[in-house]
Amino acid sequence: MTVPLVSLDAIRRAADRVRGVARLTPLIPTSTSDEWSHLWVKCENLQAIGAFKVRGAYNFLVALDPEERARGVVTYSSGNHGQAVAFAARRLGTSAVVVMPTTAAPIKVEGARALGAEVHFAGTVSIERQAVAEAIQRERGLTMVPPFDHPEIIAGQGTIGLEVVEQQPAVTHVYVPMGGGGLISGVAAAIKGLRPEIRVVGVEPAGAPKMSASLAAGHPVTLDRVNSMADGLLAVRPGDLNFAHVRSLVDETVQVTEQEIGDAVRFLARHTKLLAEPSGAVSVAGARRLAPAGSRGVHVAVVSGGNAEIERIVELLAEGSQAAR
User: Which residue of the set 77, 126, 212, 304 is catalytic?
Assistant: First the structure.
């Protein structure tokens, strides 16, 4: 059975809903020199709550029936989606429960709590925290806010694609991080709905290649284990709807190494003065692999977040400084 994909009209409706809540983040060149003048970055690390997730979370919550929303919401997240749900819930006058892994970055835990969320911890992989979130949902009668596998989440994330085309009409390639698949699904739906000739490339850590493995198998698969510094991309399985979008709309996927991810964090700091979390920098790692210095075209990498411990960023910046040049 063919799964219906999110439409361009749905993404445009989402854009109307999130306008004035999600920031219109800048799209900037990484360098004025000829060497890297082809590579631009969409700065979602400068988004409200420091990550793109606010777009999908707010679009989902505002689309709920008011009575359903008033009962409160629950979600499971490695961190950024949890903060986004907490942000949206506070903005819309309701409560939020967030289940995070025991290994969650303190900056993401503190961010969710500061926004009023009730935070619980469960395991280290997404299926463990999902089970706890579902138990809380049943016990309290809350509404579940999926992290990626839902049309309203995808539509919200797709507003980035609308902005990329508007801000840089000459774009030829767009690189997007892939975790569970919500971001790449929405961006691809928007890009292909507006400009089918633009190539959309999904980028994931080599230590968590759930989308690549699923594409090879022809259906979503669950990985036995995942491991990467890109903690926001460690879902062990892509969403069903997300997989359908990627298979239909994404032109290419690439896996990047831990060295390449670290180099991308350093490259962004050096060339754009931006601090990105490793999960947000994987798109730049993919772009640097596929479109090295001196390449033609206009290549845009979505830097999806900047919520990393400052100490970790300092460590990454101190490592391999020559590689970032």
Answer: 304
Active site residue 210: no
φ and ψ at residue 268, rounded to 5 degrees: -65, -40
Angle, vertex CA 203, rays to CA 201 and CA 206, nearest 5: 145
Parallel, antiparallel or unpaired: strands 143-144 and 252-256 = unpaired
Residue spans of the chain under pLDDT 70: 1, 320-325
pLDDT of residue 208: 97
Catalytic residue selected from 53, 108, 192, 210: 53
Interstrand relation of 96-100 and 118-121 (parallel, antiparallel or unpaired)? parallel
Alpha-carbon distance of 302 to 167, in angstroms, equals 13
Q: Is the pTM of this model over 0.90?
A: yes
Domains of the chain are: 8-51+150-324 (3.40.50.1100), 54-144 (3.40.50.1100)
214 among known catalytic residues: no
What pLDDT, on the 0 to 100 scale, is given for residue 321? Answer: 54
pLDDT at residue number 3: 78
| CA–CA separation, 226 and 297 (whole Å) | 34
Cα 22 from Cα 45, distance rounded (Å): 12
Q: What is the C-alpha to C-alpha distance for residues 173 and 250, in angstroms, rounded to an integer?
A: 11
Burial class (CB in 10 A: 0-12, 13-18, 19+), 199: middle
For residues 80-100, b (16+ Cβ closer than 10 Å) or e, as one string? bbbbbbbbbbebbebbbbbbb
Taking each helix axis as running N to C, give the angle between helix 151-167 and helix 182-194, from 0 to 180 degrees, rounded to the nearest 10: 50
